[in-house]
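PROTOCOL LOG
Step 1. Enter all chains and additional molecules of the complex.
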Amino acid sequence: MMNAVPISWFLTLSAILFALGVAGFLFRRNIITVFMSIELMLNAVNLSFVTFSYQHKEVSGHLFTFFVMVVAAAEAAVGLAIILTVFKGRSTLNIDDVNSMKN
Amino acid sequence: MELLDSFIFITLVKTAVVFAVLMTTLAYLQWVERKVIAHVQVRPGPYRVGPHGLLQPVADIIKLLTKEDLLPPYVNKPLYLLAPFLAISMALLSISVIPFGPSIQVGPVTTWMQLTDLNIGVLFILAVSSMGVYGIALAGWASNNKYALIGGLRSSAQMISYELPMSLAIAAPLLISNTLSLRKLVEAQDGGIFSWNILHGPFPQVISFIIFMIAAFAETNRIPFDLPEAENELVAGFHTEYSSMKFASFFMAEYANMITVSAMATLLFLGGWMAPWPVAWGASLVPTVIFAIAGVTALYHGTHTARKRDKLTLPVFGIIFFIIAGVFLLPMVQSWLLPLFWFAGKTGAILFLFIWVRATLPRFRYDQLMGFTWKFLFPVAMLNLLVTAFLVAWTTK
Amino acid sequence: MDVILFLIFALIAVACAINVVVQTHPISSALSLVGVMGSLAVLYLLLGAEFIAAAQVIVYAGAIMVLFVFVIMLLNAGAETRKGRSYLIPGAPLLIVFLGLMAFVVQRIFPDSTMVRFGGFTGGGPKDVGTALFTTYLLPFEVTSILILVAIIGAIVLARKEIDQ
Amino acid sequence: MQLWLIPFFPLAGFLINGIFGRRFSKSLVNTVAVGSVLLSFLWVLKTISAMGDLNTPHVEHYFTWIQSGAINIGCDFLVDRLTIVMLLVVTGIGSLIHIYSIGYMSHEGGYYRFFAYLNLFMFFMLVLVLGASFLLLFVGWEGVGLCSYLLIGFYFDKKFATDAGNKAFIVNRIGDFGFSLAMFYIFKNFGSLDFDKVFQQAASAPEWVLTTIGLLLMVGACGKSAQIPLYVWLPDAMAGPTPVSALIHAATMVTAGVYMTARSWVIFTHAPGAMDVIAVVGIATAFLAATIGLAQNDIKKVFAYSTVSQLGYMFVGIGSGAFSAGVYHLVTHAFFKALLFLGAGSVIHALSGEQDMRNMGGLRKKIPITFWTMVCAWVAISGVPPFSGFFSKDAILLAAYGHSPAIYWIGVVTAGMTAFYVSRAMFMTFFGSYRGKAHPHESPAVMWVPLAVLAALSLVGGWLFPIPEFLKGIFPAFEEAENHMLMYISVFAGFAGIGLAYLMYVVKPGMADSLAQTFKAPYQLIYNKYFVDEIYDATVVRPVVGGSRIVLWKGVDAGLIDGIVNGVGARCRDVGSLLRLLQSGNIRGYATWVLFGSVALILAMGLYGGLPR
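Step 2. Run joint prediction.
Step 3. Record the structure below.
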C-alpha cells in the first residue's frame, strides 16, 4: 500500500496547482507574474494529461503535454515581446494600468 | 534487503570515488591551464609551491577557504546566496550519468564505471546544462551591480542561443547510434577509429563535432566566448561581487562544465573508452609506451637540467612514469585501466584544446557572437542533421 | 517509497506554487515557478513519462523560464505597486469553491482503484513519443511547427526597434 | 463519328482569336476564323457522307453533365435528317458570310473581336442544332442570344447600338422565360429532357399538358424568331454590322425558333390548339411586318421587316402541320435573305455607310455585280417561278389552304406586299438617277464571290434541294391542296406587287408621295410601325420602371429591408451599449468572470448529472 500512490492524488495536486495559478492571475498586478500564473495553470493541466496517460496506459497524454509545451513556448515568445512593447510605451508593468481597450 | 544495501553501498562508494577524482581533477586542471598558458607565453608559470608548483592548487584552496566572505549590503541576499550553489550543483550533477569505462569486477561485485545509467542520459545532460544558466543569470541580477547585470544578461542570452546548435549537433550522432543512453552510445562505437561517430558512416560527423565544440566553448563561457566575464569591459562580469568560497564555486562550476562537455564530446564523437585500433595491433601497449617515453624524457631532462632543483625532481618523476608504465602491463588491472586510460586521454586532449584556444584566440564582439550562432551555426547544424537523417534513413533497410 | 517520493515533490510543488503567488517580486515568482516545474518533472518520471520529464526541464525550466528571467532582468522590474482595486473579495471565495468542487469531482470520478507505481507504465520513452508524434499526430506536429514559425516572426515584429527612415 | 468536332472548330477559333487576336495581323485573324468555320463545314460534309441515309437518328454520348437526384442530363449530340439540313445551312451560309466579312469589316476597328464573336456564335448555334436534349438546346439558345447581344452592340461607342443590343437581350429574356417554364413543365411531366424520351412519352400524354408545353415553347420561339408580340427587337438589331444581320438576324439564329418547334413536332401534332395559335401568330406577323415594310426608307429596315414577315410564313407552315414546308422555307429564305442583306451591305459599303434609300438610286450601272446578284434574290423572294422562294412559299400557302383558307388569302396578300416592298427597295436603289453624294465603287471579290454563290443558290436552291422529300421520313404527312389555281393566284400576287412597284417608282416616281399624302393616316400608321414601340413603352416599360422605383425601391428596399437591417443594427447597438458595462478593460475582471463561469459550469454538471455514480 505504501508503495503506490492513488491516481486521485495526482489529480488533486493538479487541481491545487491550477487553483494557485488562477489565484496568481487574479491577485497579482505585475503583468509578468500574471503571465507566469498562466504557465503555472498550463503545468497543472499537463500533470493531469500525464496522469490520464498513466491511467489509460497509452502515450496520447504525453503528446498533448508536448503540444502544450510547444504552444507555451510560442506564447512566451510573443507574450514577452508584447510585454516589452507595452513597457516601452507606458513604462509600467501594472496590469491595471493597461486598460485602454475600455471604451 | 541485502541487494538493496549493496546497491546503495556500491553507489555510495562510486560517488565518493568519482567525487574525489573530479575535485582533484578540477583543482589540477586549473594548475595545468596556468602551466600551459605560461609555456605558450614562454614563462614558467606556478613554480614556487611544491616541485614545479605541483602543490599550487592546494595553496589556492586554502587561500579561498580562509578568505573573508564578503556579503555586500545592497545585494538581494537569498538569490545572491543561491546563485553559486545552483551553479556548482548543476555542474556536478551532470557528471553522474557519464560513463568512464566498461563494467569492472571488484571482488564479488560487478559494476559499471558510471554512477547511474539513464536510458535518456543525453536528455538528462541537456536538461541539467540548460538549468546551469540560472546560476549565472541570478548571480548577475542579485549582485545589484550594472557590470554583473550585463554579464548575467549576456550569459543567459548566449547560453540559450548556443544551446540550439549544440542540441542539433548532439542529435546527429544520436541518429547514427540510435540510442539516448550514453553507455549504449559508446558500445555502439566499438571496433576502432572508423566506428567512432566522428568518422562513422553513413555520414561522418566531423561538422557536427566542430559545431559541438564551438557551442561547448560558448556554453562554458570560455574564450573566445567569455563575454559574460569580459574583464576589460565588465570588471569580472557576473561574479564581480563574489569572493572567497562563493567565487570558488563559480570557478569550479566552470571547470566542471568543461570536464562535462569534454567527456560528452568523447562519448558522442570519439568512441568513449574504446581504443582507436584493436588489441591485436598493440592497442594495449600504447599507455606503456607513452609513459615509458615520458619517463625517458624526464630522466634526460634531469641530467641536463637548467635549474638546480630539477636535478632532484625530474628523475623522481621519470621513475614514477616508469612505474606507471609497468602497471599498465599487469594483466589483472589492464581490463579496467586501459579503458580508463583511453577515456581520460581523449577527454584530456579536448581539455587541452580548451586551454590552447584560451591562450591563442581573442574575444568575440557581442553582436558578432549572436549573429554567428543564429546566422551560421544554427543553419549549418540544421543542414548537417538533415543530411545525416536522410542518409541514415537511406541506408537503414 | 513511491508515496514518500510523491509527497516530497508534491509538497515542494505546492509550496513553490504558493510562493509564486505570494511573492511580490517577479524574479522570486519566476524562480519558484522553476521549482514547481522541476518537482513536476520528478512526478512525471514517477508516472513513467521519461521524455516529457526531460522536455519539461529542457523546454519549460531551461528555455521558457530563462526567457522570463531574462525579460525581468531586462526591464529591471521591481516589486509590484499596490494600486487599483483588489479582486480578493469576489476572487477568493470563488476560488475556494472552485477548488472544493474540483477535488470533489476528482474524488467522484477517480476512486482510488488505480494506483500509480514507479515503472507501472513504460510507454513514455522517447521512442514511443516519437513514434506517436510522427504517425498519429503528424498533422498537429507539423501545424505546431508553423505555429512556432509564426510566433518567432510575431515576436520579432513586436519587439524590434523601429528603424527610422 | 466525332460530332463534337463540328462545334469544336469554331470554339477553338473563338478561343484563339479571343485570347491572342489582339496581337494577330488581320489576315491571320480571318484565316483562323474562316478556317475554323470551313473546317466545321467540311466535317459536316464528311459526317453526311459517312452517315448514309440516316433514317434513324444517330446519338453520341460524351459525358454526364448534370447528375442530381432524378435529373440525369448527358452531353449528347444527335444527328438526323433535320439536323443535317440545319447543319448545312448554318455552316454553309456561315462560311460564306465569314468570307464576305473579311471584305466588309476590313476598315473597321475591333476586327479580331468581331471574328471571335462570329466564331463563338457559330459554336453556340451548332450546339443548339446538335443538342440531343432540351437543356443542351437551351445552352446553344442562350449562347446565340449572348452573341447576338454582343454583335448588335458591336459599335458599343454608339448609344443606339448598345440600346438595340439591350433591347434584343431583354426581349429575348421574355421568350427564354417561356422556354424555361416549358422545360420545367416537360421535366415535371416526363421526368427527362432528352428528346427521344420526351417524344416517346408525349404521344400518350394528356392534350392539355401538351397544349401548355406547346404554348410555352411558342413563347420561347416568339422571342427568338421575332414573332408578335416580341418581334420589336429584330428591326433595331440592324444596328449591328451588316454581315451580322445577314448571319444571325436573317439566316440562322432567328430560325432557331422554327427549328425548335419543328424538332418538337410530336408535342405540337398532339396539341391542335397550340398549332392554331402558331398559325394565327405567324400569319399576323407576316402580314403586319409586310405592311410596315412597305413604308420604310432604311434599306436594312426594309429587309428586317421582310425577315420578320418571312419568319411569320415559316410559322404558318409549322402551324398548318407542314413542318417540312416550314423548314423548306427556312432554307430558301436563308439563301435569299442572306443574299439580300449581304447585297444591301455591299451597297452600303459602296456608298460608304449610306443606308437611306432616298439618297440612293441609279446604282445599277455603278455596281453591276451587286445589282445582278440582288436581282436573283429579288426574283426568289417575290415568288417568281421557278426560283427557290416560289417553291417553299407555295408549299406553305398550299398547306395553309388545307388548314384554313383565310390564312391562305392573307398569305397571298402578304406575298404581293412582299414582292412590292422588295421591288420598291430595288427600284429606289438601283433605278432612276443617283441622289446621293458619295462615290459608289464596286465591292472587292472577297465580297461579291459569296454574293454570287448565294445568288446561284437562290435561283436553283428550290429544286436543287427538295427538302420536303428529304424530310418526309421525319415529319407526319400533311394534306396539300392539289389546286393549281391557288398556285397561279399566289404567283400572280407576286407579279402584281412587282408591277405596282414598277409603276410607282420607275414609271411615275412622284406617285408614291402623292399616295402617301392621300392616305395620310394609314401611311403614318405603318411608317411609324403601328406605334408598337411607343405602345410597349407606355404599357409595359414605363409601368414596370415606375413600379420598381416606387414600390420595390422606395417601398420594399428602402422602407422594409433597410428598415429591418437598420433596426437590427440599432438594437444590436443598444444591447452592446448595455453589455459594454461588463467590458471594464481590466483583465483581472474578465478572469473573475471566467472563474465564475467555470464554477457555475461544474456546479451545473454536478447537479444535473454528467458525473458517474
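Step 4. Note key features.
The first helix of chain B runs from residue 2 to 40.
Chain B has one domain: 62-274+330-395.
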